[in-house]
């Protein structure tokens, strides 16, 4: 849908970077930067990927802005574990296996919670099948410094009210939808329209 809106869209495949081992965040940032190469770009991140955008912007040459979609904002010098609610941090530590790997993201919340977010059985099964296991160490790593660039924010769920409020304080273009965290899967047209609006304002 973004491509139909006139954008050249590239998606960074981050799975291989996790398989390479620590430091995980540096590997993820490198994959994003190489995906952009030397072309002008706006980086888009959903959920936990938001923390990677500014570091990837520093590693790439021609990043002109960031679009955060129900995502955390950059936290240079801090770890994701240090910024998440303490009960969630405790939950992750308890879920990790002996080798320090977490189950796929859908299993963090249970089948009923996932079914509530994604009612369609086929869509839910495809999503769950594509979610990788994540190393607990990823969340304990300190995020590297990033490049300042214009930002925009699309808030989908109440869980991201705080970063949306920070975006508003910074004067960023902001759209708030009364939806849920996985709306890109269940309501792609609505989310894409909002993203296209914000991209046009960033440019």
Summarize the structure.
The chain contains twelve helices and six strands.
Please explain how this structure is put together.
The protein has 203 residues and is α/β, with parallel strands linked by helices. It has 2 domains: 1-79 and 141-203, Alpha/Beta hydrolase fold, catalytic domain (Rossmann fold, 3-Layer(aba) Sandwich), CATH 3.40.50; 87-138, no CATH class. Helices cover 47% and strands 14% of the residues. It has helices at residues 15-19, 24-36, 50-59, 80-83, 86-95, 106-109, 111-117, 121-130, 136-140, 161-169, 183-186, 188-202, and strands spanning 41-47, 63-71, 101-102, 134-135, 151-155, 174-176. It has a 4-stranded parallel sheet, sandwiched between helices. A two-stranded antiparallel sheet has the order 3-4. Helix 2 (24-36) crosses helix 3. The longest helix has 15 residues, at 188-202. The protein is globular and about 45 Å long.
């Amino acid at each position: 849908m973004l491509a139909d809106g006139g954008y050249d869209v590239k998606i960074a495949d981050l799975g291989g970077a996790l398989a390479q081992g620590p430091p995980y965040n540096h590997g993820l940032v490198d994959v994003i930067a190489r995906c952009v190469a030397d072309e002008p770009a706006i980086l888009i991140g959903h959920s936990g990927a938001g923390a990677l955008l500014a570091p990837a912007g520093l590693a790439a040459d021609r990043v002109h802005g960031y679009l955060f979609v129900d995502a955390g904002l950059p936290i240079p010098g801090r770890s994701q574990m240090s910024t998440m609610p303490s009960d969630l941090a405790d939950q992750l530590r308890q879920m990790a296996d002996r080798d320090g790997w977490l189950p796929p993201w859908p299993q963090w919340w249970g089948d009923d919670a996932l079914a509530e977010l994604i009612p369609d059985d086929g869509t839910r099964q495809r999503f769950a099948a594509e979610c990788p296991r994540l190393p607990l160490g990823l969340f304990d790593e300190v995020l590297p410094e990033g490049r300042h660039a214009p930002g925009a924010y699309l808030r989908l769920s109440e869980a991201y009210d705080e970063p949306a409020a920070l975006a508003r304080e910074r004067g960023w273009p902001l759209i708030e939808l009364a939806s849920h965290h996985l709306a890109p899967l269940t309501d792609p047209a609505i989310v894409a329209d909002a993203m296209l609006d914000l991209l046009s304002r960033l440019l």
